[in-house]
Design a protein that fits this description.
- The chain is α/β, with parallel strands linked by helices and 249 residues long.
- It has 2 domains: 142 residues, Periplasmic binding protein-like II (D-Maltodextrin-Binding Protein, domain 2, 3-Layer(aba) Sandwich); 91 residues, Periplasmic binding protein-like II (D-Maltodextrin-Binding Protein, domain 2).
- Helix content is 35%, strand content 24%.
- A 6-stranded mixed sheet has the order 1-5-2-6-15-7.
- Strand 3 and strand 4 form a beta hairpin.
- Helix 2 packs antiparallel against helix 9.
- The longest helix is centred in the C-terminal third of the chain and has 16 residues.
- 39% of the residues are buried.
- Bound molecules: glutamine (GLN).
Length: 249
């Protein structure tokens, strides 16, 4: 068995896969398999037994444009690009930032959302600006751009990596860590649910979320880009945007 096959077997065996939606059709070409990590509100999260959120609505609209049926698999965030590259899923839609490192293994669609990393600290924290993070214990989500940023730029930081942002927030609340670095919208979501946490202004650069597609699947990349432009033109993108986000005046 070739190394790549072994790697993909190991990958599929280690994934905690939840398949949502109807997969009854026998024609595989009509199914668009999307991978996500449903712990990133409001882009993807679990409501009851369903995976919902902005990315799910967007992917459903794209599937509709493509005449396909969306099937969603919930997996660890840091396994998503591998799953795309190995063909386990067709696309990853997971608030995933288009980064040069990821472009080594997957293609990205046009961007569909602009974001930023944010710093969350307790209201009474001594951390007031990004520089105060030096030598602190910082919680991040494993394999995310927040993890990359903290690891590369914050001197002396003790970085604690969590599978889910909510677990990092729990440790911040119980004082095990000093700060959490996470994307802006989930940050607002997590902080809104607590009355003792705040978000700090920060100078981190903007990031662009995009859909990851296998490198060899250039046709799907084109189809998805076409669908994205159609949805931006016909107002359907704006409809879901308004459903999940406050308008910036
Ligand atoms: N935007 C971040 C990244 O791409 C975090 C995404 C996520 O946790 N779902 O790394």
């Amino acid at each position: 068995m070739r190394l790549k096959n072994i790697a993909s077997l190991l990958l599929s065996a280690s994934l905690a896969i939840t398949i949502v939606g109807c997969g009854a059709s026998s024609d595989d070409s009509t199914i668009l398999k999307m991978g996500t990590n449903a712990a990133f509100p409001p882009f993807e999260y679990i409501e009851g037994t369903e995976i919902v959120g902005f990315d799910v609505d967007l992917a459903n609209l794209i599937a509709e444009e493509l005449g396909m049926e969306l099937e969603i698999m919930d997996m660890e965030f840091n396994t998503l690009t591998g799953a795309v590259a190995n063909g386990i899923i067709d696309i990853a839609v997971a608030g995933m930032t288009n980064t040069p490192e990821r472009r080594d293994s997957v293609n990205f669609s046009e961007g569909y959302f602009t974001s930023k990393q944010m710093i969350i600290v307790p209201d009474d924290s001594d951390i007031k600006v990004t520089d105060d993070l030096t030598d602190q214990t910082i919680g991040v989500q494993l394999g995310t751009t927040g993890d990359q940023f903290a690891s590369m730029y914050i001197e002396g930081a003790d970085i604690v990596r969590f599978d889910k942002g909510a677990l990092a927030i729990a440790d911040l609340l119980n004082g095990t860590i000093d700060a959490v670095i996470i994307d802006a919208e989930p940050a607002k979501n997590f902080v809104a649910a607590q009355d003792s946490l705040q978000i700090l202004e920060n100078p981190f650069v903007e990031e662009e979320y995009a859909i990851a597609i296998a490198k060899e699947n250039t046709e799907l990349t084109e189809q998805i880009n076409d669908a994205l432009s159609t949805l931006k033109e016909n107002g359907k993108y704006d409809e879901i945007f308004d459903k999940y986000f406050e308008k910036v005046e």
